[in-house]
From TrEMBL:
<dbReference type="GO" id="GO:0006152">
    <property type="term" value="P:purine nucleoside catabolic process"/>
</dbReference>
<dbReference type="InterPro" id="IPR002125">
    <property type="entry name" value="CMP_dCMP_dom"/>
</dbReference>
<protein>
    <submittedName>
        <fullName>Guanine deaminase</fullName>
    </submittedName>
</protein>
<feature type="domain" description="CMP/dCMP-type deaminase">
    <location>
        <begin position="8"/>
        <end position="131"/>
    </location>
</feature>
<dbReference type="InterPro" id="IPR016193">
    <property type="entry name" value="Cytidine_deaminase-like"/>
</dbReference>
<dbReference type="Pfam" id="PF00383">
    <property type="entry name" value="dCMP_cyt_deam_1"/>
</dbReference>
<dbReference type="GO" id="GO:0047974">
    <property type="term" value="F:guanosine deaminase activity"/>
</dbReference>
């Protein structure tokens, strides 16, 4: 993780993400809030609604990214910044990378989250150490013929109306 110089605007938006998280707890949500700010200043909020929505992907960061993509009409959020009350978990970090966000600014770190009962250490280890994967989540690949295995990609390559991402 690289520590970069932050601005007063960063501090303002991060404070907003923390406020969003705190308010979300008061409405039976998880203690996480996020804000995507686009290059032109549009703001899109997201809160953790995992238990409320019975959706393990309803993290604040993913919710804010979804709102920003819908609100701007694009899946490419280049130039935007994600402000989040806590260090993003691996899923949220991957979402930020897919959305092509320019930066992430967060307050609490993964140790703070773990101390509050949100311990993602297993997920970090899953990606860092292949030996940990055994027995955690069995993943299998079935050896199929190339033409069968790659049929969706061939169809994608032949589709002239596709939108590249």
């Amino acid at each position: 993780m690289t520590v970069q110089t932050t601005t007063r605007a960063d501090e303002k938006y991060l404070a907003r993400a923390i406020d969003i998280a705190t308010e979300n707890v008061r409405t039976q949500g998880g203690p996480f809030g996020a804000l995507v700010v686009t290059a032109d200043g549009q703001e899109f909020e997201g809160v953790n609604r995992v238990t409320a929505n019975l959706d393990p992907t309803a993290h604040a960061e993913v919710s804010a990214i979804r709102a920003a993509c819908t609100g701007t009409g694009t899946f490419d959020l280049s130039g935007a910044v994600l402000y989040t009350s806590c260090e993003p978990c691996p899923m949220c970090l991957a979402s930020a990378l897919w959305a092509r966000l320019d930066r992430i600014v967060f307050a609490a770190n993964r140790d703070d989250a773990a101390a509050a009962g949100f311990d993602d250490a297993t997920f970090y280890r899953f990606f860092d150490d292949p030996s940990v994967r055994q027995g955690m989540l069995p993943v299998s690949v079935i050896a199929l013929e190339d033409a069968i295995r790659t049929a969706p990609f061939i169809e994608w390559g032949n589709t002239t109306s596709r939108i590249e991402y």
